[in-house]
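Continuing the batch. This is chain 6 of the set; chains 1 through 5 are on the previous pages. Same settings as before, nothing changed between runs. Recording input and output for traceability.
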Amino acid sequence: MFVAFSWMKTRNPKIIPFYIAVAGAVYIFELIIFIILDSYVYMPGVLEDPYYDSAIGAIVSNGLIVPSTCTLIAVYGIRFWWILLIAAGFMGVEQTFISLGIFEHHWWKIIYTGIGLTVLFSMGKRFWNMLCHANHSYLFQLIVLYIINVSLQGSILSFYMIFFQQIEYRPGWFENPSRDNLAFATLFVHIDSVLFALLISLRGNWLWKTLLVGILGCIYLWLIWQRLLFTTGIWPVILLILFQIVIIQLLNGIYRIIGREHL
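Output for chain 6:
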């Protein structure tokens, strides 16, 4: 709904890369505090697996609610004192969730949420102003494409792994197999996002795109051979490769939007 209000205000297609990039930035942060450092746990009761259930709660919050709020704040140019009030509102909601027993802190504190959101929303306003200009440095485009790819791949792969459970990574980093699975998959996405961002920002032709997809396919097969990736058959691997092809096409379209001057 917030994204719809933002579109009504500006009619600028750059809302799309902005929203996805904000979600990606949050995902990068969540890799550290949620997956690696085990900061908190959601308990929405949607899935039987407790860790996947928590992950879905985190995805909804950090991939939908927070980015849409940041988009609204940036597009409408909401002032800092209102940003503080909105962040306080999120803190109140978090405390309510704790009271209802659907959210629990491990080492995380509510004040961290308030500080983090205040910084994110304030930086989001600056990022929006930068994105609205047509002339961007190569480094700016590369970083934005990287973050956007983290968001797109991370969302698609997470939902596929959690709901269909046809692939599973087993690096042996954590005792909980679900956490182990998501940790490796998320790290893999962060690494291959560098290659995707370079491919699109350097305007690689179909040959380079085919080469990248082929390399990823070989990596998946190597991971299976090393018993780090387990699948229900060859079709899940083929589907992963098809996902990568779709992501490349989406990034191409987003790259054109980023470079476009809004009239």
